[in-house]
Amino acid sequence: MNYRIIALDVDGTLIDDHHELRPRVRAAVRAAAEQGAEIVLCTGRGTTSTLPMLEQLGLEGTVVTHNGACVVDSRTREVLHQSVIPPELVERYLDYCRERRYHFDMNTAFELYVESLDETMAAVYKRIFVTPIVRDAKTEGLPDCTLKISIFALKEQLDELERDWAAWSHDLQTVRSGDFFMDVQPLAASKGTALESLAKLRGVPREQILAIGNYYNDIGMLTYAGHGVAVANSPDAVKEAADEVTLSNNEDGVAVVLEKLLG
């Protein structure tokens, strides 16, 4: 095993479209860890919904969450790094969503806040191990130390949102993290920069880092890593940014890559 750090996206990469960790993938990730590689989950998810995935793998360690805006030690629950959104910069994004009745949530390192919660969205959050807190940010203000705003809408609605926002000047970055998700977060936050910071802390050169992902928010870590792999269900731009394309998340793509490395 030539890679000392293996960075894995979760949704669309590590788990399948049924949101399940497939047995072959779990076995391959654990085998890589047993050979000395540090497994780092790098995800757009919040910390609370990421740690159960690490537990399903039977591992402990560092997780990069909120698209790189937060780095947490799973053993101690200590926040090692976080990039906070200045409240005054985010209001126009929230107003845009309120006007169109797009659902959004506000994420701190461990909590997720919503302004409203219906049965459909409650079921979505339950599936990813999250219990939202209802908070009217219009009157109560943004939660302290908010790291990321996530907007959930139909693909066509988010396509329109992207076109509208392309005309804005931005002091925050907008990241398409899935067909149905758009994230707003600090300019400095990304999976790539978080992975780079962790590698420097560990004294690991980028040549000894493997990253596997599937969406636009993974491009930074795929290009930073010594070897970046896109799963087959990735958009073309993500595949083009990667060094290799493996099978899809429904075909044990992560396992195929790791088994090849393990010999």
Automatic annotation (TrEMBL):
GO CC annotation, single: cytosol
UniProt cross-references to CDD domains, sorted A to Z: HAD_Pase
Source organism: Cohnella fermenti
Domain of life, per lineage: Bacteria
GO molecular-function terms, A-Z: magnesium ion binding; phosphatase activity
Protein name stated in the entry: HAD family phosphatase
Taxon lineage: Bacteria, Bacillati, Bacillota, Bacilli, Bacillales
Recorded coiled-coil stretches: none
InterPro entries in the record: Cof, HAD-like_sf, HAD-SF_hydro_IIB, HAD_sf
Pfam families (UniProt xref): Hydrolase_3
